[in-house]
TrEMBL record:
GO terms for cellular component: endoplasmic reticulum; membrane. PANTHER family: 1-ACYL-SN-GLYCEROL-3-PHOSPHATE ACYLTRANSFERASE. NCBIfam families: AGP_acyltrn. This is 1-acyl-sn-glycerol-3-phosphate acyltransferase.
Amino acid sequence: MEHWNNDECYIVISNHQSSLDILGMFEMWPVMKRCTVVAKRPLMFTGAFGFGAWLSGLVFIDRLKTDRARKLMKEATERVIKQKTKLWIFPEGARYNKGSIQSFKKGAFYLAIDAQIPIMPVVFSQYYFLDSETKTFEPGKVVITTLPPISTKGMTRNDLDALSEMARQQMLDVFHEASKDLVMQIKIAV
């Protein structure tokens, strides 16, 4: 957590393996102090969770209504700058627990470049204990790694692809290393 500076605003990006990611986010919340999250709109209608998330300021976007989604994310970024807080985005766009990190969608990087806000990469190690097919899990550990912030100062949209790929590659390297270490500790093969 040595890379966090609560006087800075960030676009936080992390890999997205499961709805269990929220537990890792809760672990980090006391350090981040103030953060809001971008989530898909259907989560807003998941009973008490959806209602509580809405009350706490989550940004719910409808991925099918891209113009509206862009507008909501731009407004959220303006609040992040004004309030010196964080905006957490899962750039993979969908959960993926297959031992890697998918290609990133570009939204988080557009926001960071347009607003000249640093990107804070966060990596959750592989959920080796989770069986996505049967929706069951065994006891296990997750290593959460915060990488150094990536400055977007002076970048333009021409830098978007390179920025996205650089962030993904840094996260992928950490993901594989942290996951390998965990697997070695518990003597199972990934």
